[in-house]
Specification:
CATH architecture of the largest domain: 3-Layer(aba) Sandwich
Helix content: 25-40%
Strand order of the largest sheet: 7-6-5-8-9
Structural class: alpha/beta
Number of domains: 2
Distance between the termini: 16 Å
CATH topology of the largest domain: Rossmann fold
């Protein structure tokens, strides 16, 4: 299926073949992402970044991806300085941005915002995270990371740890990993365990996830431990957040007995979930993971803009 002109709202819109095509393209673009080669395949193309919610890695990696391919960017990272502050609707903002650019990258706190935006845009809309909903480009870079760091995705033991209730990254990732027939374990306190509908979905896809409360239960068997922070901003009740804020913390001592090839991933930012001492260990892959966002988003941008890489 051609990606040209295609909106990227949910990872569920992608078949396994689609995903593999993007990952293959990302691998080819690695030298350009690293600055080892120059490219101008997106010259005269403009990307609008509309970030109604804070972001560091997602926004900067999208901008880096566009610039590495010779394109240009415009947009905002603070909605307080836009007409949204005056009451402008998202639909009107999207119509305006579509008139000024060739592709729109949208982050918004409301779930479903990207889907709505796609209905009012004449150019491709890429969902850069909508509330507790979807984050498809994070999922693509996560899959790329697993493939590069572990060798393959099929059949690997993947443990998703932390805030599985509100974490949009793990919702998208669990679905995608099921497409690749990975073996999933969901590690979370009962109040933050993976939503029942998500568990039901991966079961329908043929995956039989394990639900556990203790991270110690997965250390020895996991090929990948994917850690997420407890998202304070998603909690309707601050007292509930305090009860689970420090429930998991990975330390070097905890990793004794882990496979040599096991890798720890985290979508970042981290708070207290991973001790800084782990950063120097062979297991740590989260900073590489952040970099892999550049070639992955390069691949996606060039694909939806109909440019061969």
């Amino acid at each position: 299926m051609s990606f040209k002109g295609r909106h990227v709202v949910s990872i569920r819109d992608f078949s396994r073949k689609d995903i593999e095509q993007i990952l293959s393209r990302a691998n080819k673009l690695l030298p350009i992402a690293k600055g080892e080669k120059a490219s101008d395949i997106l010259r005269n193309k403009i990307m609008a970044t509309l970030f109604f919610e804070p972001s560091t890695r997602t926004r900067l990696s999208f901008e880096s991806a566009m610039l590495r391919m010779g394109g240009r960017t415009l947009g905002f990272s603070d909605p307080g300085g836009t007409s949204a502050k005056k009451g402008e609707t998202l639909a009107d903002t999207i119509r305006m941005a579509a008139a000024y650019s060739d592709v729109i990258v949208l982050r918004h706190p409301q779930e479903g915002a990207a889907k709505l935006a796609s209905e009012f845009s004449d150019v491709p809309v890429i969902n850069a995270g909508d509330g507790a909903g979807q984050h498809p480009t994070q999922t693509l870079l996560d899959l790329f990371t697993i493939k590069k760091e572990v060798g393959k995705i099929d059949g690997k033991n993947i443990a998703l740890v932390g805030d599985l209730k509100y974490g949009r990254t793990v919702h998208s990732l669990a679905y995608a990993l099921s497409t690749f027939k990975a073996k999933l374990t969901f590690v979370a306190p009962p109040t933050l365990q993976m939503p029942e509908e998500m568990v039901a979905t991966v079961k329908e896809m043929g995956t039989k996830p394990k639900l556990v409360n203790r991270i110690e239960d997965v250390i020895k068997t996991a090929d990948v431990i994917y850690v997420t922070r407890i998202q304070k901003e998603r909690f309707p009740d601050p007292d509930e957040y305090k009860k689970v804020a420090r429930v998991y913390r990975i330390t070097p001592a905890m990793l004794k007995g882990a496979k040599e090839t096991m890798r720890i991933m985290h979508p970042l930012p981290r708070v207290k979930e991973i001790s800084p001492e782990v950063d120097e260990m062979k297991h740590a892959a989260y900073f590489k993971q952040a970099f892999y966002g550049v070639p992955t988003r390069m691949a996606l941008l060039s694909a939806v803009l109909g440019v061969n890489s």
